[in-house]
Design brief:
Helix 3 packs across helix 4. The protein starts with about 25 loop residues before the first helix and ends in a 7-residue tail after the last helix. A hairpin with a 5-residue loop joins strand 8 and strand 9. The chain is globular, with a radius of gyration of 22 Å. It has a domain of about 210 residues: Thiamin diphosphate (ThDP)-binding fold, Pyr/PP domains (Rossmann fold). It is an alpha/beta fold and about 350 residues long. It contains 11 helices and 11 strands.
């Protein structure tokens, strides 16, 4: 894709549209982070396409000064795939929510991941349907009372990481809406990755599911409840930076450095580039209260992309074909002159 020496700012990617999200919605923070990242990437706005489905988060294309397409419910992945295959030079971002992506759009999502289309999927997960006023979504916790589950939902929720890994995804990352530093780092890594980059953004819906991620978002307790993973670095976390992860058999375990003879050399080193996803999946699925929630880039491996394979196939077939363009086709037809 085209890059320039022009120094862009976040303002260059802000449209003139009024941002129509509720005050306090986590989507505002994600939008601001994305605009900053797009500027830092130095990819011109006309080489950027923002594709979305339906939902609160799917309004985002209106707020980015670039090409955009607000499509229909659950079909963002299909349209984003078409855009990337038709014009591989574009930087394509798919903006979607937990309902849009994992309910009606679930089939399109897993197949775009399986194909490894070179798009960036920004999945806003607030564990609720916000735009349609508070029904439970595919990621809503079991037992949660909503307008469509007045006695509590009896369904087990999807875990986006599990779906991504199950579809043989090559990139998965996660961040909290309030953690702008990690958000921007993750988005930048996703944009540079060749293949389907799935980013789970844990956002707060202040109206219908306020505090869904509050136990993680509290600044005071966040260091003990989350771990920001970095490739090649030991998995250490905590307010005192004295907690770490080790592997006991095939189970991840939290230990304290300095206790029971544990030293920093005992702590696992994060390998986001390992093709064997066993440890990466365990990290992605960690849940409290004893285990921290993993943030940052959890998996990032290289593999053939769908759009590049299609482009190469077309090139190879054209090289072997006698008919290479429309004029060649016309020349094969019976002709006469007046």
């Amino acid at each position: 894709m085209e890059t320039t020496n022009i120094q862009y700012t976040a303002k260059d990617f802000k449209s003139d549209q009024y941002v129509r999200w509720c005050p306090g919605c986590g989507d505002h923070a994600v939008l601001n982070s994305l605009q900053k990242v797009l500027a830092d990437l130095a990819i011109p706005p006309h080489q950027t396409a923002i594709i979305s489905g339906i939902g609160c988060s799917s309004r985002l294309p209106y707020y980015i000064s670039s090409y955009g397409f607000h499509t229909i419910h659950g079909r963002g992945a299909a349209v984003a795939t078409g855009v990337k295959v038709a014009n591989p030079s574009l930087a394509v971002w798919q903006i979607t929510g937990d309902g849009d992506c994992l309910a009606i759009g679930g089939n399109h999502f897993i197949h775009s991941v399986r194909r490894n289309v070179d798009i960036n999927v920004l999945l806003f997960n607030n564990q609720i349907y916000g735009l349609t006023k508070g029904q439970y979504s595919p990621t809503t916790k079991k037992g949660f009372v909503t307008k469509s589950s007045p006695f509590g939902t009896v369904e087990r929720p999807f875990r986006p990481a599990e779906l991504t890994f199950g579809a043989r995804g090559t990139f998965f990352a996660r961040f909290l809406d309030v953690d702008l530093k990690v958000a921007q780092s993750v988005m930048s890594a996703a944009a540079k990755h060749k293949g389907t980059s799935v980013i789970e953004s844990l956002v707060n819906c202040i109206i219908f599911n306020n505090g869904a991620h509050g136990w993680l978002a509290e600044k005071e307790n966040r260091p003990d409840r989350t771990i920001v993973l970095e490739h090649g670095k030991p998995m250490i976390f905590g307010k005192e930076r004295n907690k770490g992860l080790v592997l006991e058999g095939m189970t991840l375990k939290v230990v304290t450095i300095g206790e029971n003879g544990v030293t920093e050399s005992d702590i696992l080193i994060h390998d986001a580039h390992a093709h064997d996803s066993t440890i990466q999946l365990k990290l992605a699925l960690m849940e409290g209260p004893e285990m921290p929630i993993a943030m940052g880039v959890i998996r990032e491996v290289e593999d053939e992309t769908y759009d590049a394979a299609v482009e190469a196939q077309i090139f190879d077939e054209k090289a072997k074909a006698k008919i290479k363009c429309f004029d060649d086709l016309v020349a094969t037809c019976e002709q006469w002159e007046m």
